[in-house]
Amino acid sequence: MEQLLQTERNTRNTIRKHEEQIKELEDEVASLKQEKESILVFHETFTHLENILKNDCHIDLRKDLEPFTKVFYDFKEKEYNVTSIVHLYEKASKIRMGYQD
Description:
0% strand, 3 helices
């Protein structure tokens, strides 16, 4: 009987440990999904900015990436919101060209 109780305790402990592992894995998956979304947003912003700079300013980020990267690093260091800056620039460009959002 004692052996059966010990087996039950061991089984319950094993189940509890597995449930904790499942929770940790679920948290990690959620974190990875959030990271993926952030990367996608950054990629979309970069692509959009790349097109604006190439078409409007004749700046090719693929050739001049290092100096431009420094600009982004400086923005981040000063806690500027790059996405907001790009949207404001785009809105100003549309207004300047006579378009409305």
